[in-house]
Design brief:
This protein has one domain: OB fold (Dihydrolipoamide Acetyltransferase, E2P), CATH 2.40.50. About 5% of the residues lie in helices and about 55% in strands. The chain contains one helix and eight strands, in the order E-E-E-E-E-H-E-E-E. Strands 1, 4, 5, 6, 7 and 8 form a six-stranded antiparallel sheet that branches.
């Protein structure tokens, strides 16, 4: 069970093609989902934030484009910023929400 839940509107599901870097290193293709979220700031204002997350299950998100969802996420620090990720495995934790989001 995830300790964090991301809620937002699914805007896009995309495939990033395989590529070769300048040094010849090969990178595999992967899928991403983009979710627009609302962040509440310390002063009470709201900031919109587009979260782009890798997913192993793009087919689980495609029918949800335009819908508000809640999904379990993990977090880690990278370069002074907090980055989020979707757990590997099945998409059973994705819930379509009745609430209105961004």
């Amino acid at each position: 069970m995830s300790m964090l839940t991301l809620q937002g509107t699914v805007l896009n599901v995309l495939e990033v093609p395989a590529r070769t870097g300048k040094d010849g290193e090969k990178f595999d293709a992967y899928s991403q989902v983009q979710i627009m979220c609302r962040e509440t700031l310390q002063n009470g204002e709201t900031r919109l934030s587009l979260q782009t997350l890798r997913t192993e299950r793009p087919e689980a998100f495609r029918p949800l484009v335009g819908k508000v969802v809640q999904c379990p996420i993990g977090a880690f620090a990278q370069g002074g910023a907090i980055r989020f990720f979707l757990p590997k495995g099945d998409a059973s934790g994705i819930v379509v929400s009745e609430e209105v989001s961004a």
